[in-house]
Amino acid sequence: MSLLQIISILTFFNVLLKCVSVYIFCLCIMYSVYSNSQNLCCTCGVPIPPNPANMCVACLRTQVDISEGIPKQVTVHFCKQCERYLQPPGTWVQCALESRELMALCLKKIKSSMTKVRLIDASFLWTEPHSKRIKMKLTIQKEVMNGAILQQVFVVEFVIQSQMCDDCHRVEAKDFWKAVVQVRQKTVHKKTFYYLEQLILKHKLHQNALNIKEIHEGIDFYYGSKQHAQKMVDFLQCTAPCRSKTSQRLISHDIHSNTYNYKSTFSVEIVPVCKDSVVCLSPRLAQSLGNMGQVCVCIRVTSTIHLIDPNTLQIAEVDGNTYWRNPFNGLCNPRQLEEFIVMDIDIIRDQKLGAGAGMRSNKHTLAEVWVQKTSEMDSNQQYYCRTFLGHLLNIGDLVLGFDFANSNINDEYLNKMNPHHVPDVVLIKKSYDRSRRIKRRNWKLQELAREGDGMDTDDERQYQDFLEDLEEDEALRKNVNIFRDASKIPVESDTDDDGAPRVSLTEMLEELSLTDATGGEGADMMTD
């Protein structure tokens, strides 16, 4: 054989060997693929588990983007004043950073664009608290080509934009209100207002008020909604005998949406009777209250007017509806109180009442008293009267009362009474040294933050009278929060004990001082 034939034969066997090797390699690959239940990717040929698209994940992602249509940057509105987030359309909610509430709010912002995908997981990515950015990593799934399910992870960035909420806007405007409650009492003394102030503070009804203004004969409460004003009116009607009227004024009108913008005004009038007022009832009202005397003393004003007859110790309660049907006014104001000294006193043990008489007071004692004005000690003029203070008075004690004998009183029912039935003096309460009481008073009350001219001399005197009433009336103190005054250290001595009533330590509360969780004043959560 020639050399050329030998070379051709060797070349043939070499090609044949390569073909056999390729064939064996293909058989091995096919065997491995079918033995592991895998397919080849139709694009890149990589062995993959069988799927309806016959494509690997990398090739499938190059063909389909399941996060398409979902915004990668969203705006979230935040109020820096109250640190609340806007939840469309008009609700503001309190959310802490990286909280469940904040995650729910953010997901609601992109909920409409995720209707065709399935949310698998969501988590926050750390960002600087002052960066005004919130990043959230989302994991979603979606069915793509021929029923194949593709899962994808991506990041959505929420940009925090400052916007003042409606409530803070009204507070900053100071004159933007939708309802006002005008509380009025046509009387000289403000004891009822001081009592209502403590009830409002105790029940925290002042928190919704935009502004509180103190004016002549009353106080105004401004609110951002009519519902809050109506709540205040309902509270006043439950705590004080009063009547109310409502009016509204049209501010604007939208003819397209048929919406109206009103400003509402609630006028609340409290009965013109305060504690320690002397009143003269109509004969009809006195008869309906158990045939009690017409001249009575108001010992307390709560949801009703508590009256006592100084001649018989009969007590009665007059509610608001009864008062407005049979109105009566105070005969004297507290400025006309005069100081008397007790010259003699006799306790009346057995007092027989007539038929149809009402209840008698068990907390008071009926007594006959002869008193003399401290301003007329150089004369022998004495006055005789009956009083309900027999359990407190002794010979030589000082007592405050009204002098009817030397007063010119213009009252419809008093002028029609028999002059023999009108007492010369009506005693109201026992008198103590005010300077000593102020010196050893180690408690205080909270006050509403309101606009006004401040307390003048007369207002300060009336406020001290109210504090003394709290010390003397335990039933009145139950509705008031009394706080211990740590700044005052009372000085006790045997000579200062004049028998004046006091507030016990068990009735006092510790004044709380709430600070930020950081231990100081803290800082805003989001700043520019």
TrEMBL record:
Pfam families xrefs: NMD3 (PF04981), NMD_SH3 (PF21193), OB_NMD3 (PF21192)
Residue stretches making up the 60S ribosomal export protein NMD3 OB-fold domain: 337-430
Gene Ontology biological-process annotations: protein transport; ribosomal large subunit export from nucleus
Cellular component, GO, one term: cytoplasm
Compartments where located: Cytoplasm; Nucleus
Domain called Nmd3 N-terminal: residue spans: 41-270
Family under the similarity heading: Belongs to the NMD3 family.
Protein name: 60S ribosomal export protein NMD3
